[in-house]
């Protein structure tokens, strides 16, 4: 399966009478977009705003971040099974508005939604401060359930991203990158001397605000399975969750999965990147046992020599992470796990909720309990008062001068466990 | 600005007093620089100066620990230093223990920053790495130049009271305090590099060594449950509606204690969860699902248990550091014992 990603670089975003991409600028017709989004009967109001790198802007509570993409050729469309009809994606050509993103915000659904600061200290911790963001602010109707509320916001984000992505359909990309996965048999023949490497991608699936969808299937109802890496680049996996903001894998992360990109860089030279094993993080012990049995069984069946395992969330999923690691190592397959830490505000506590000696190769995205003070911003998009109750905040997080004292937990994408960032700890 | 005053602690060997035959050498205070101090002093340039050196034989120190410690500390204190450097001891075991002991005592008793250096396998490293910054050195004095290069800037930072970065950045042995910093490569690239090294059988360093887990033995079964006083304690975040104590949804800094003296059932609208780590819909609809007051009241009525304790304790487990959880648990346990509680049902989520 071969996919070309055509990157159209976006360096500015503005509102205008016509939605279009011109000279690296993304123009958005506000009214057209809003009227399309208001078709959802669960929503009371929708407004849109713009947040650019370096601006004195704070967005909170952030639900999801999505990169605009469009399928130019090849089967299916972006977000199959959720927005587009179910058809296997991951081949042909996909154009990407690189440097732009859709960010969704509005009334908080739960406790786990995050903060994106476009400048200052907070901006250093979130990768989304470097993007030209179109922020969608959605307020739900009063009577709807938290489930309907979450779903409505999820769909608004995806629809907006597809709307913007479509503007890149006829544009000649600035750069094209090609990714190809060959069959198991071809791989063995073509790279006989290279270690066979897989990627075990753990998907959050603990319930409301903790779900992930694969081709529209709620991952908590799926057995562990395999997928082509390029399918993710076309939106086969989308986020329906906000674990803690810092270690939630947004849809943007799934589209730009850093482990997949790094494995492709060494594919054919230092290793043979075979495929991705996707597994869930359910709450029941039986599910944990079954899913980790399956991930190790598939790794063995695929004849892998090594795997990278990435996690989403913390605490309860630490047990899934360690089970996966332990069972795969027991098959004689080498592992590296990517996680983050909850070592307390002073860094002196035990970092994970589970451990095993076989987890001897760990990459960490940093200590999420570290406290940071984020200075006041000129403009707030969303509802800033929620920082007192979100995960990572506390009573008094929001100070009178508008500055915020929070743990890194509250910053969207800060300690990402796919290894998206440079933040780490020792 | 005047220079920081530094006192240097070394053993008989590095002071050129003698080898093993002079290991009983008693503490001596010498003005100025001796032996390896020359390299440190050169490194300090205009910022600091070794004003005195304390020399002590390794056997004397270890065999007369308390006396020697006091003698050395008095000598150091008499020089009124701003900073103390011990060693480095490399792989010399008794010297390492002496350096660690002196440095730890300087920090604790004199409230003056201190720094030492040793090889990771020196027994002094394990004994003192959580109390003192110990720069990781080679296993012999051939590593002096490298050690000085790392110790000088770290010593100056400690003397100035500047922020100490992570062990990897500063070069000290990991001391159990996790410190965040930005790596040069992103995590995914580091992961792939580490996997390639692991597959090729090449050395690699894990970024987080697995901790030793504190496993708790379950308590013995109750002999007479029908007359036992049972308490409910939860990390599932059940609190009276409105979360009066503002227990955090994650990384809880406290726990709550709430009376259920006249409560037979936790109902929607009166209780809720403060926990931010699981789907709260079902526990908000019926908080008994997390804190089973209703069932225990029935058991109480039926005589299956003696009595349900009048109070329940609640905190949020989500992202809460183990150290904090331990602290809350020991406080709660003390109160429960004082209240004559025989057993606890702990519910988690």
Give a concise summary.
The complex is a heterodimer of chains A (426) and B (349). Chain A has 426 residues and is α/β, with parallel strands linked by helices. Chain A is built from nine helices and 26 strands.
Topology (elements, then pairings):
The complex is a heterodimer of chains A (426) and B (349).
Chain A: E1 2-9, E2 12-15, E3 20-22, E4 25-28, H1 30-37, E5 43-51, E6 57-62, E7 64-66, E8 69-73, E9 92-98, E10 100-106, E11 114-117, H2 121-125, E12 132-140, H3 146-166, E13 175-180, H4 184-190, E14 196-204, E15 210-214, E16 217-218, E17 225-227, H5 229-233, E18 237-241, H6 251-255, H7 258-266, E19 272-281, H8 285-301, E20 306-310, H9 316-330, E21 334-341, E22 362-367, E23 371-374, E24 379-382, E25 404-407, E26 423-425
Parallel strand pairs in A: 1-9, 2-4, 6-24, 10-12, 14-19, 14-20, 20-21, 21-22
Antiparallel strand pairs in A: 1-13, 3-4, 5-12, 6-11, 7-10, 8-9, 15-16, 15-18, 17-19, 23-25
Helix pairs in contact in A: 8-9
Chain B: E1 4-11, E2 28-31, H1 37-44, E3 48-56, H2 58-63, H3 65-78, E4 83-86, H4 93-110, E5 114-118, H5 123-128, E6 133-136, H6 144-160, H7 167-170, E7 180-182, H8 187-199, E8 229-234, E9 238-240, E10 256-259, E11 271-273, H9 281-285, H10 293-302, E12 307-314, H11 322-338, E13 343-347
